[in-house]
Design brief:
- The complex is a heterodimer.
- In chain A, 52% of the residues lie in helices and 12% in strands.
- Chain A is of the alpha/beta class.
- Chain A folds into 4 domains: 119 residues, Beta-Lactamase, CATH 3.30.450; 190 residues, no CATH class; 86 residues, Four Helix Bundle (Hemerythrin (Met), subunit A); 203 residues, 3-Layer(aba) Sandwich (Rossmann fold), CATH 3.40.50.
- An 8-stranded mixed β-sheet of chain A has the order 8-7-9-6-10-11-12-13, sandwiched between helices.
- In chain A, helix 2 packs antiparallel against helix 3 and helix 14 runs antiparallel to helix 15.
- The two termini of chain A are 57 Å apart.
- Chain B is α/β, with parallel strands linked by helices.
- Chain B contains 7 helices and 6 strands; from the N terminus they run H-H-E-H-E-E-H-E-H-E-H-E-H.
- A 6-stranded mixed β-sheet of chain B has the order 2-3-1-4-5-6, with helices on both faces.
- The longest helix of chain B has 25 residues.
- The model of chain B has no long low-confidence stretch (mean pLDDT 82).
- The chains are: A alpha/beta, B alpha/beta.
- At the A-B interface, strand 1, helix 1, helix 16, helix 17 and strand 13 of A face helix 3, strand 2, helix 5 and helix 6 of B.
- Bound molecules: guanosine-5'-triphosphate and magnesium ion.
- The site of guanosine-5'-triphosphate (GTP) has 23 residues of chain B, from helix 3.
- The site of guanosine-5'-triphosphate has 23 residues of chain B, from helix 3.
- Chain A: GO terms for molecular function: GTP binding; GTPase activity; signal recognition particle binding.
Chain lengths: 664, 284
């Protein structure tokens, strides 16, 4: 069973929801954060494209599975949440159908500017879909609504009114006789269309049923009637009316029932909807409705009416016709191609609009320009995978969008790419290393935390400049008067410890000028790095150090053995920050590097940031920044821009984006 | 050749058609220009109030409350949103102060645009754009979740960071475009028992912003600066130069008045946002 179903906007307002079990809002929030904002789902890049829920990767969070789909144009998200333990095959269909129905009913309201209010009385439509799909889910036939116009009257013939309600599976198909060839059935539908509401709002259909029977009005008119009728219901009143209606109904029933054949059967079979759902109330409603509808029918259609259930039936009809028209529209748009005159005219118009603006972008318009953008990014040393995904994202975002006045397609793409790059590179939460260190080494009296040193460890492949960047960070910390312990955990490569010792000697010299203190902690070669790190942290706590900087051995990201030792290392050293150094020069490999390191620390621990070194050597080609962040969603903390200890910078997103988009 | 001459002659002749066309053009062009220029200048837009603050502070919830009188369920926002609200009965816009009570314009409720922005770290550019490029902006409500602001909390750090950045933008704004800009720090979720009272919200934010300010001044430079790519930015010190501690009152020097007041959008006893309504009505 479903836990909850929500229809919400990208602006964060829930338009309609129905929940069967309480679900923490954080479940859907994390869907929005991970899938829509941070675009973490690597597989099935469906975000932004209005595809069926079945094609969007299901999102799992905290024992819940979320199925979703979007309508980009209206900024809508449809989400169904259920327990991961359950296997509900019909949820995709439900989400898709609800989307279609909701847009059809309330699309106009949703386009209104400057308001979040959408008057919707959607419960009945939703319940109808739920019942229908749950039924088809139980049975084998789940073809609805792909074959909406089969199963016609033949099915109803021979079911006598005295029979018990038909089996639930039958119901799933039978509501589809809207376009039945039988004239009586058609008339029936028309009659019932004067009134559509659902059984839980009895007063509503009483009121509407008494309207004049010329119910040939458009679907829109019926919609309005429906909305009104749903409003009209109020408990007290309805009860008395039901009672009255009941009286009138019973006696008329008899006369009518023997008068008609087919039509009677027809409506009889409809009964099973409510019969299946709520057996107790359906009886009452049935009779009540008969009474109400009698007035209409006797005047217009003689005694053709059977007992009740027009309301449900009509809702079904409406829903089915919405779904069917949406289906056929889809086929139409796939099949039709405008004539030569039409297309050439639109081509001229397109050219004109290309200059003046106000053009609605299509995939064809974008394709060529997007290819150019992709090549541009590749030239900037962005890994192919990242470039392709970025371009796909921008393309999806732009299809169907209107260009501004005097804005060319090119400019539009440029600005969309700029926004997209900034979004990727901007960290989710601010990265203020100094303040984070302060919070750890001098915790506020209230927070009950003991003072301890702040631990940073640096990882990366061989030769990217781990020790150098570690020294740069150390220099920065010394400038801010911290007491730093540098730990040599590269117990593997000969000469590594000595190299670090040289750095420490230099830094000590600088420290005497800048303030701060620095020491080296080393245990020679051959020891287990994780143990050394652990001892060093203990030592630092005893000796009252502020920051511990741990240098690790460089390792190839595809070296299984060395990579697996990182997990133990993270567990033993418990670093506050694990930073990975990546070289700006590295090309396609960057994605794999970042990804492998990000997952090497076991579940529950990942990288906290990148340091991209040697940015000064690549000029404008700073694509590695994007590739690495793109692969992992880990932000860039620092960039290395030179040979000196002071050549370390915070990443300025504006600067990076400017470089990436600059043309040469 | 002949046709061209003919055409020219026809056009220059004092024919009724030519005259009519000329008159038409003469009349239409100013109208056309007026429409374009007037629209782009933003003078036609309603006065607006901007809602900003970190994610989950209740901006969207507050917006729906202001719009409809009761709040709607909400989730994380991804796109900004502007809705038209009108002041509730019983409040008077600040600009109506000198109007007679019987003035018929009092009858119509003052309308304004309330703009919600996403608070997610990656999406704050929407909010920033609204400040740097204001459209008849009358005030900013910075919403904070008072229940997460206890000392040492990560949320306090993130909130102070955002507030610091916003105030810094206001301080460096182009005074010609935006003369004075009041900021209301609305301490939301007072219904929760962990919530700090407004006075404490004020002092802890001030203390944390002091830290942000120090750490920014000591922090590393941004990439690009000093590398010949970007000219050095001018001074980024928030508030009074050389002051040891940051106080919101220091912003007055820059025509930014900061107020802190508490309230809640949800809660057992219903919403309590009267103070915020009052603040809004005084800005209009
Ligand atoms: N207890 C309590 N909860 C509140 C209050 N105001 C808002 N909330 C809850 O806080 C949560 C977040 O509110 P939103 O309005 O979505 O937050 P937001 O500021 O719009 O967040 P973003 O859109 O992500 O920037 C919602 O679940 C609200 O129900 C309040 O006064 N008291
Ligand atoms: Mg929001």
């Amino acid at each position: 069973m479903l836990d909850t179903f929500e229809i919400l906007t990208t602006t964060g307002v829930v338009l309609w929801s129905k929940s069967y079990a309480p679900v923490n809002p954080s479940v859907i929030n994390s869907l929005i954060n991970d899938v829509f904002i941070e675009e973490r789902t690597l597989s099935g890049a469906g975000v932004g494209e209005d595809i069926s829920a079945a094609n969007n990767p299901p999102y799992k969070h905290d024992q819940h599975t979320l199925k979703w789909t979007t309508v980009k144009e209206l900024g809508l998200i449809f989400v169904a949440v259920y327990r991961s333990l359950l296997h509900l095959s019909w949820v995709d269909k439900l989400v898709d159908n609800i989307k279609t129905i909701f847009i059809d009913l309330y699309g106009d309201q949703l386009k209104k500017p400057h308001t979040t209010i959408v008057e919707c009385h959607f419960d009945e439509y939703f319940d109808q879909q739920m019942q229908q799909l749950e039924k088809t889910g139980l049975g084998t036939d789940s073809r609805f609504p792909d074959s909406p116009f089969q199963h016609q009257e033949s099915r109803f013939v021979g079911i006598s009114r005295d029979e018990p309600p038909p089996l639930p599976e039958l119901g799933g198909k039978q509501e589809n006789n809207t376009l039945s060839n039988d004239p009586t059935a058609n008339e029936l539908n028309r009659a019932s269309s004067a009134d559509n509401s659902r059984p839980t709002t009895p007063a509503g259909h009483l009121l509407t049923a008494k309207r004049p029977p010329g119910g040939k009005g458009s679907r829109r008119a019926r919609k309005a009637a429906n909305a009104a009728s749903a409003h009209a219901s109020s408990g007290e009143e309805s009860h008395s009316k039901i009672a009255r209606a009941n009286k009138g109904a019973t006696q008329k029933k008899g006369r009518k029932w023997d008068a008609d054949g087919l039509a009677d059967e027809d409506s009889d079979t409809q009964l099973d909807y409510s019969a299946a759902a709520n057996g107790t109330t359906s009886d009452q409603e049935t009779s009540e409705r008969t009474g109400a509808v009698e007035v209409v029918d006797q005047a217009t259609w003689g005694s053709k009416t059977g007992k009740g259930q027009f309301i449900l039936k009509d809702l079904d009809d409406q829903v089915n016709s919405i779904l069917a028209s949406a289906d056929s529209k889809k086929e139409d748009s796939a099949a039709t191609s405008t004539g030569i005159v039409g297309s050439s005219l639109s081509a001229i118009g397109g050219l004109f609009r290309n200059v003046v603006g106000g053009k609605i972008l299509t995939k064809e318009d974008l394709d060529k320009a997007m290819k150019g953008m992709e090549d541009h990014l590749l030239r900037k040393n962005v890994a192919r995978e990242a470039a392709v995904r970025l371009c796909e994202g921008v393309e999806r975002e732009l299809i169907g969008v209107k260009t501004g006045s005097f804005e060319s397609v090119q400019a539009k793409i440029q600005s969309a790419m700029e926004a997209s790059l900034s979004k990727i590179l901007t960290p989710t939460s601010s990265l203020d290393l100094l303040r984070e260190i302060d919070a750890v080494i001098s915790p506020s009296a209230l927070s009950l935390q003991k003072k301890r040193p702040y631990v940073i460890s640096i990882v990366g492949v061989n030769g990217v400049g781990k020790s150098t960047n570690l020294s740069k960070i150390c220099f920065f910390l010394l400038q801010n008067k911290y007491k730093v312990l540098i730990v040599a955990c590269d117990t593997f490569r000969s000469g590594a410890v000595e190299q670090l010792a040289v750095h420490v000697r230099n830094l000590k010299e600088l420290a005497s000028r800048e303030g701060g203190e620095v020491e080296l902690y080393q245990k020679g070669y051959g020891k287990d790095a994780a143990n050394v790190a652990k001892d060093a942290v203990t030592f630092a706590t005893q000796e009252d150090y502020d920051v511990v900087l741990i240098d690790t051995a460089g390792r190839r990201h595809n070296d299984q053995r060395l990579m697996s030792s990182l997990e133990k290392f993270a567990k033993f050293a418990q670093p506050d920050k694990i930073l990975m150094v990546g070289e700006a020069l590295v090309g396609t490999d960057s994605v794999a590097q970042a990804r492998n390191f990000n997952t090497a620390f076991g579940s529950g621990r990942s990288l906290d940031g990148f340091i991209i070194s040697k940015c000064d050597t690549v000029g404008d080609m700073v694509g590695t920044l994007v590739s690495m962040v793109h692969a992992t969603n880990v932000p860039v903390l620092f960039v290395g821009v030179g040979q000196h200890y002071s050549d370390l910078r915070n990443l300025s997103v504006k600067w990076a984006v400017q470089k990436l988009l600059s043309s040469n | 050749m002949v046709t061209i001459q003919d055409l020219a002659q026809a056009a220059l002749n004092p024919s009724p058609v030519g005259l009519a066309l000329a008159v038409l053009f003469a009349l239409l062009i100013p109208l056309f220009l007026h429409r374009f220029i007037f629209q782009s200048s933003g003078l036609t837009t309603l006065p607006s109030v901007l809602l900003i603050g970190p994610s989950g502070s209740g901006k969207t919830a507050l917006l729906t409350l202001f719009e409809r009188g009761n709040h709607a369920p909400t989730h994380t926002s991804q796109t900004p949103l502007a809705v038209e609200c009108s002041l509730p009965v019983g409040t008077r816009a600040g600009s109506d102060k000198y109007r007679s009570v019987n003035d018929p314009t009092n009858q119509a409720h003052k309308k304004f645009l309330l703009m919600d922005t996403p608070g997610h770290g990656k999406l704050r550019h929407h909010a920033i754009k609204n400040i740097t490029n204001p459209q008849n902006l009358k005030g900013i409500i910075f919403l904070v979740d008072a229940a997460t602001l206890s000392a040492g909390d990560d949320a306090l750090r993130q909130t102070a960071d955002y507030l610091h950045d916003v105030l810094l933008i206001l301080q460096k704004r182009n005074v010609k475009v935006l003369k004075e800009l009041p900021v209301l720090i609305a301490a939301n979720k007072m219904d929760l028992f962990t919530a700090l009272p407004a006075a404490l919200v004020r002092s802890s934010l001030e203390a944390e912003i002091t830290k942000v300010r120090d750490s920014r001044s000591k922090g590393l430079l941004d990439s690009g600066i000093g590398m010949g790519d970007v000219d050095d930015e001018k001074d980024d010190w928030l508030g009074e130069m050389g002051s040891k501690e940051f106080k919101f009152s220091q912003m007055e020097e820059f025509d930014v008045s900061v107020e802190v007041s508490g309230g809640n959008v949800l809660g057992g006893g219903g919403a309590s946002v009267d103070k915020w309504w009052k603040w809004v009505s005084e800005r209009l």
